[in-house]
Design a protein that fits this description.
The protein has about 350 residues and is α/β, with parallel strands linked by helices. It folds into 3 domains: about 220 residues, 3-Layer(aba) Sandwich (Rossmann fold); about 60 residues, Tetratricopeptide repeat domain (Serine Threonine Protein Phosphatase 5, Tetratricopeptide repeat), CATH 1.25.40; about 60 residues, no CATH class. Helix content is about 45%, strand content about 15%. It has 15 helices and 8 strands. The chain is elongated, with a radius of gyration of 24 Å.
C-alpha cells in the first residue's frame, strides 16, 4: 500500500505526493488521461514510478478538458510543497498519455523538468484536420497550445506515436515549436492511439519508459516488436484502416481478416470489414459484417447507423429505418439528421415509383 500526501484536493482535481522506497533524487510528475474519473490512488503510471525509484507527484483530473480548468496556482502549491521537503531532486520528468501527454509537454517548464515524455499527445483538439475530440473542443472552447516561449531550454522532449495515425499531424505541430535538438520522436507504425497499449502488449512499456525518463539512450526494440506484433490484433486493424484510406482494398482485407481471426467478437473490426466489403462492391458481405457488429455492440449508435446505410443501399428501407431509429435513440440530437433525410428521400422516391 502506497500512502500519499495531499497537495491539492478539489472536486475535479487532486494532486498527491508519493515517496519511493529509497531516495534516488528522481521526481516524476504524471498526468491522468482522457476519461479518467479516479482521483484517489497513484494516478497514471504511478505504480510504475514508485516501484522504479521515482518520487511521484500524481496530478489527477476527472474532467475531459485537457487541464484547462486546472487552478492557476497549482504549480505554485507544488513548488512550495517541494521546497519544504528534505529531498532534493536532480532529475525531474513529466509523463502522460494522450490528454495526459499534452499536459506533460505543456507543463514541463512549470515544474522545471529535464525530460518531458508523452505517448500520442495532442497539440490542439480544435483543428479541422482531427475531429476525434471535436465534441470536447466545442464544449470547452479553445485549449492552450504550446508556444516557443513555453518550451523549457534544458528539457528533452520525447514523443512516441504512430506515424500512420492522425497523431502524426499533432507531432508535426510540436516540431514547429520545439527545436530539433530538443525534440526526440519515436515512431511505432500501426500501434494506434495511444501507443501505450501497443507497448504494453509488446511487454516493452516499462523498459522503454525507464530509458526515456532516466535520460538514457532510447531503445527501439525492433526485433521484439517484429516477433510479438503477429499476435496483436489491433496492429492488423490499424494496418487495415491505413490501407483502406489509400484504397488498397486487397491488403486492407487481408489485414482485417487477420485481426478478426485473433479477436472474432470485436465490433470495430467487423465495421472495418464492412467498409472494405462495401468498397469491393460486396454489399451482402458488408451487411453481414455490420449486422454482426450491431449484435455484439448494440449500445454503439454508429454501428447501427452503418448497418442502416448499407441496408438503404440495398433498397431495404424498412430495415434501414429500424436501425437508424435505434442509432438515433442511442445518440439523441442531430447526429444522424443528414442520414435520416437521405433515407426519407429514398423512401419517398420508392413509394412514388410504386404508385
Amino acid at each position: 500500500m502506497h500512502h500519499g500526501r495531499s497537495i491539492l484536493s478539489l472536486n475535479d482535481f487532486r494532486v498527491d505526493y508519493y515517496q519511493a522506497q529509497a531516495p534516488s533524487g528522481r521526481l516524476l510528475f504524471t498526468f491522468t488521461e482522457f476519461s479518467n474519473r479516479m482521483l484517489d490512488g497513484l494516478g497514471f503510471a504511478g505504480k510504475f514510478a514508485v516501484e522504479n525509484g521515482f518520487d511521484l507527484i500524481a496530478i489527477k483530473s476527472s474532467l475531459d478538458d485537457w487541464y484547462q480548468s486546472l487552478p492557476p496556482d497549482t504549480f505554485d502549491l507544488i513548488g512550495n510543497f517541494l521546497a519544504d521537503l528534505p529531498e532534493r531532486h536532480s532529475l525531474r520528468a513529466t509523463y502522460g498519455s494522450s490528454m495526459g501527454g499534452y499536459a506533460a509537454i505543456l507543463f514541463a517548464s512549470k515544474v522545471s523538468a529535464n525530460v518531458a515524455f508523452a505517448l500520442s499527445p495532442q497539440f490542439d483538439i480544435g483543428q479541422s484536420w482531427d475531429q476525434r475530440w471535436a465534441k470536447w473542443a466545442r464544449i470547452h472552447g479553445p485549449i492552450q497550445t504550446l508556444t516557443r516561449e513555453a518550451v523549457r531550454p534544458d528539457c528533452r522532449y520525447v514523443l512516441a506515436y504512430d506515424p500512420m495515425d492522425l497523431d502524426r499531424l499533432h507531432i508535426e505541430r510540436f516540431a514547429e515549436v520545439i527545436s530539433h535538438d530538443m525534440l526526440h520522436t519515436v515512431k511505432f507504425p500501426c500501434a494506434g492511439h495511444p501507443v501505450g497499449y501497443f507497448l504494453s502488449f509488446m511487454k516493452i512499456l516499462k523498459e522503454f519508459s525507464l530509458a526515456v525518463l532516466s535520460g538514457y539512450e532510447i531503445p527501439l526494440f525492433r526485433d521484439t516488436i517484429r516477433a510479438r506484433k503477429k499476435a496483436y490484433s489491433d496492429y492488423y486493424f490499424n494496418l487495415s484502416r491505413h490501407c483502406l484510406k489509400r484504397r488498397k482494398l486487397r491488403w486492407a482485407n487481408c489485414a482485417i481478416s487477420k485481426a478478426i481471426s485473433l479477436a472474432p467478437l470485436n465490433s470495430e473490426y467487423r465495421i472495418c470489414a464492412a467498409q472494405i466489403a462495401e468498397g469491393n462492391g460486396d454489399l451482402v458481405g458488408a451487411i453481414s459484417h455490420a449486422a454482426f457488429a450491431v449484435a455484439t455492440a448494440p449500445w454503439h449508435p454508429h454501428m447501427a447507423a452503418t448497418l442502416s446505410r448499407l441496408l438503404q443501399r440495398m433498397g431495404l428501407y424498412g430495415q434501414a429505418l429500424h436501425y437508424l431509429d435505434a442509432a438515433s435513440s442511442l445518440a439523441p440530437g442531430a447526429a444522424f439528421a443528414t442520414q435520416r433525410a437521405a433515407l426519407e428521400r429514398a423512401m419517398q422516391r420508392s413509394t412514388t415509383a410504386i404508385g
